[in-house]
Amino acid sequence: MLLALSVISFQAASLGAAAYKIFDQRGGTIGRVAGNDWVLPDPDSFVSSRHANVRWAGGAYYLEDTSSNGTFINAPDRAAPRGTLVPLNDGDRLYIGDFEIMVQLIDAPGHNPGHNAESNHAPAATPPPEPVAPSGLGLGTVDPLAALGAARSEPQPSFAPPGSTPPPSVPPGASPPPAAAP
C-alpha cells in the first residue's frame, strides 16, 4: 500500500508537480525546508521546518505532528496531538499551515520495498503507479471519449497486398471507382 498526499488548496497551481507526494512504507518527513521528503514552501513560516513525520506500522500509515503550529486532521480546528501517531484514512484532509492536503491510500500489488519499516529514508527511485488526481489540480487527466473521437477523425491508412497498386483516394462525398473484373 502507498500513501498519496495532494495539496488541494490554492497553492496547488504554483507548486506544480510538487503539490503531490507519494510515500511508501519507509515513510518520510514533511516540512518547509530542504532535507524533508516533501517540502511545502511557506515564507510566512506557518509550516515548521520539520512539521510532521509519516510512518508505516502494523499495515497502516500514521502521521506524527512534530510542529510548533500544529497539524490538523479533517477540520482546521481538530489538532492532532503533538508527538502522537494518528492513523491516516483514505479521504482524510490534513491542514498544515495554509495548506489543505487530501489523503489517498493506494493498493499497489507486488510493492515490497524490502526495508526497515521504522526507517525514515526517501521513497524508492522507481515511481509507483499514479493514483487518481483530485479534480481541479490539472495534474494530467485525459477524457477517454475525447481521445476516442480524435482517433476516429484521423485518416485511416489503406493497405494493399504486396505487388498491387493501392486504390485511389476518394474525396469525401464522391463515389468510389467501379471494381475491376477479375
**Helix proportion of residues, in percent?**
under 10%
The major beta sheet can be summarized as: 5 strands, antiparallel
Which class do the helix and strand fractions yield?
A: mainly beta
Any low-confidence stretches, pLDDT <50, length ≥5? 114-160
Gyration radius, rounded:
26 Å
What is the beta-strand fraction?
25-35%
* Number of helices, counting only DSSP H or I runs of 4 residues or more: 2
What's the rounded overall pLDDT mean?
76
The end-to-end distance, rounded to whole angstroms, is 64 Å
| Quaternary class | single chain
Strand and helix order: EHEEEEEEEEEH
The count of strands amounts to 10
Question: Looking at the structure, what is the overall shape?
Answer: globular
Biggest sheet, spatial arrangement of strands: 2-1-10-9-7
General description of the model:
The protein is mainly beta and 182 residues long. The protein is 8% helix and 25% strand. The protein has a 5-stranded antiparallel beta sheet with strand order 2-1-10-9-7, with no helix packed on it. The chain has a 5-stranded mixed beta sheet with strand order 4-3-5-6-8, with no helix packed on it. It is globular, with a radius of gyration of 26 Å.
